[in-house]
Amino acid sequence: MIAVRGSATAVLDLLPGVGLADTTGALSSAARNAEILVLRHEVALLRRQIERPRMSWADRAVLSALARKLPTTLRRHRLVTPGTLPAWHRRLVRWKWRQPPAGPSRPPLPDELAALMQRLATDNPTWGYARVQGELRRLGHRVAAATIRRVLRRFGLPPALRRASRQSWRTFLHAQARTLLACDFLHVDTVFIKRLYVFFVMEITTRRVHVLGVTAHPTGEWVAQLARNLLVDLGDGAGGFRFLIRDRDSKFTAAFDAVFAGNGTTVIPTPPQSPRSNAFAERWIRTVRAECTDRLLIIGERHLRAVLAEYTEHYNTGRAHRSLELRAPDDEPNVIRLPAAAIRCRRVLGGLLNEYHGAPIQSPRSPRETPSSAA
């Protein structure tokens, strides 16, 4: 930006005591000079508000043509500097002599095919470029391995060795879901401000929950005994679980781990201060609090056991789960129920929760109808 060069003295020098208009009505030279000073001042005010004006090529052509008529000292204080004018010219030359667009060549890779490459590499971390190429060939797509490498790099996917070595905790949980158990503690405060602890175990693949015990003073021996009770309740199904996820609570002693080790189940402690590593159990704690314990006043251990027993039955048999395609853990996944003729409501926890079941409508008998005729 520049300041107005003319001061009060300069303005008086430009107005040598003559009128602003002569006898013919035209502007005098002093009036024109005053107008130029006013315009310069207005331009200076506008430059304070606009950081960088946007000019079209027509504006650039006009400024380039008129800038040649200005003295050197005035040319330095324009919207553009002398170095800008050659830059505009060089840009025009590049546009004139740039190469025309090439003719038809190899068609671009469809976005659906690139997304399929990303899916194959993400779902199968051990697959290399040739393995992905072979799978695409079986699906009817002929793509070079170099193209697959370029596409995967664009999506930020490294080669197979690096992808296989950086397996996340979530990937491990999904891969081992059928053989995983998760356990944790839930605490509930009674109306007498007494804290009770609930120990539960969840089967990850089915989301089935087992509430094993409630006490006000949990100990390592108590937790180990509940683990033995769980293996007895599971029976032959206990041999199908290979891993048990638990946190680093001091109540999980070596005796607790030994109970599952004898069953062939490996106990995996979560990293310190990482509740997401045991996300399934933490999610059930959030659910049971939101749907049950936070909406009731718990009196004591006996009351809490009864409440959790009824809620656990509802959770396992009558509650839809988003992770199970809106089925309950005990529902048969291969059975598609027909629309029910009548709907029956079953109240859970005194109407705190409701379950709805379909039942066929039985046609009422006529007063004149006898059992034999009905048959």
From TrEMBL:
- Ranges for domain Integrase catalytic come to 173-337
Q: From which residue to which does the signal peptide run?
A: none
Would you say which domain of life the source belongs to? Answer: Bacteria
PROSITE patterns, per this entry? Answer: INTEGRASE
Function, please?
Involved in the transposition of the insertion sequence.
**Protein name (database record):** Integrase core domain-containing protein
Q: Where does this protein come from, organism-wise?
A: Kitasatospora cathayae
